[in-house]
Amino acid sequence: MTDRVAWTVAAPGPLHEPTVWRVPLTLDEAGRHACLAALSDEERQRTTRFLRQEDRDRYAASHAALRRILAGALAADPADVRFLADEAGKPELDGPWRGHLAFNLSHSGGVGLIALSPDARIGVDVERIRPIPDCLSLARSYFAAGEVSALQRLPAEALQTAFYACWTRKEAFVKALGLGLAFPLDRFAVSIPPAAAALLSIDGSADAARAWSLQHLAPAPGHVAAVAIEAPGRTCALRSLMPDWSSGPA
């Protein structure tokens, strides 16, 4: 259950293939001011809704990074990147770049992931692994029956990480669809570690699942993630911003 491709430190630029960017979200004072300055007025207003400074910083950092990475792909200024929400509330590009590419954002703990695709729907999810007293009970409430059975067969020491891996694989797929809670998690099945990440069925159809690719990601110690893309046999390139990206030039 490892990355198939190494993370490569790079600067944002043209998008030639599906790519997942890893973003460090821990900010110093200079980075905090730079990220806030990069946001739109609406985005800055949203940061005030978080009670903890840590959460405000992570929102500002992840959305400033999203603007920077999209700007690199679009050959635009980060401040000019505009968004709208579709009928299900999923953010999309607006203005001259509407429909130009697909993107998705996820963050947990101090890690953010931004997935971009030039030609297919894409979704990404990352979770910091935290103890869950009874993850099997949670799985029985939301997961497909085959996933629950596979989790039950695992040794106790492997269960928590496998649960989070399953969760991120499912969330990445649902986020790629853009349907949110309108698409229940038990309508489709994914593989369970130690099996390689894969979408196994959608509404019982293995043929429908073969139109998608799932990729397991390990972006940082204590975190697990996955990316889903609507294309068979596709692997995303893995890129990482520099640790001090937030205080550097856009």
UniProtKB/TrEMBL annotation:
Domain 4'-phosphopantetheinyl transferase as annotated: residue spans: 121-227
GO molecular function, one term: magnesium ion binding
Top-level taxon of origin: Bacteria
UniProt domain 4'-phosphopantetheinyl transferase N-terminal: residue ranges: 35-115
One biological process term in Gene Ontology: lysine biosynthetic process via aminoadipic acid
Gene Ontology CC terms: cytosol
The protein's name: Uncharacterized protein
UniProt source species: Methylobacterium haplocladii
